[in-house]
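ESCALATION

Customer reports they have been waiting on this structure for their group meeting. Please prioritize. Original submission:
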Amino acid sequence: MSKKNEGKIFEDNWKASYKKLPFYFLRLADAAKWGRGSDSRFMTTNPFDLLHFKPPYLWLLELKSTSDNRISFYPETPWIKPENVKSQPMIKHSQVKSLMESTQKDNTIPGFIINFREKEKKTKTFEHETYFVHINDFVQFAIESKKSSINREECKKIGVSIDSKKKKVNYTYDIEKFCEDSVKILFREKENTYGN
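Update from on-call: job pushed to the front of the queue and completed.
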């Protein structure tokens, strides 16, 4: 029996954190794929991983988890896939584009849940940290920095820290506090739009 992917464990932990909450949660099914030979495959692309609804707001979220200290994406215009590039960054252009499009609707809060897993090095231990980065802040960061990745410190600077508690093995995330903190971003975006 193969060991479960760490990213899937994070997704399962995140999903389990909704169990006792009174609002709607939906995890979209993973994309289906098939192939014949090395060059032939079919794949449907999900716009994002999940949504949850806590009236009157709808969250559209893409979950990412890494043991590295950074998450990769296409530089400067992460919603466009460069021509003749075969490698795939962790954040796909289609995910960025879908989340960007959802900002056009009222009371939507789209973005990335970025999980940096605990990691030990010879001289330093990196803690388990999770952040919400609103899609508008992510895009602004990508354009202005011209970088092809975002690290822990940058997520901390432009994102919202999400509290978590570790049980024996798994983590539980404070979804309700995350909702309260991320709604503040929505009000900030409205103020920027209307110039209040």
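Sent to customer with the following note: DSSP finds five helices and 14 strands in the chain.
Escalation resolved.
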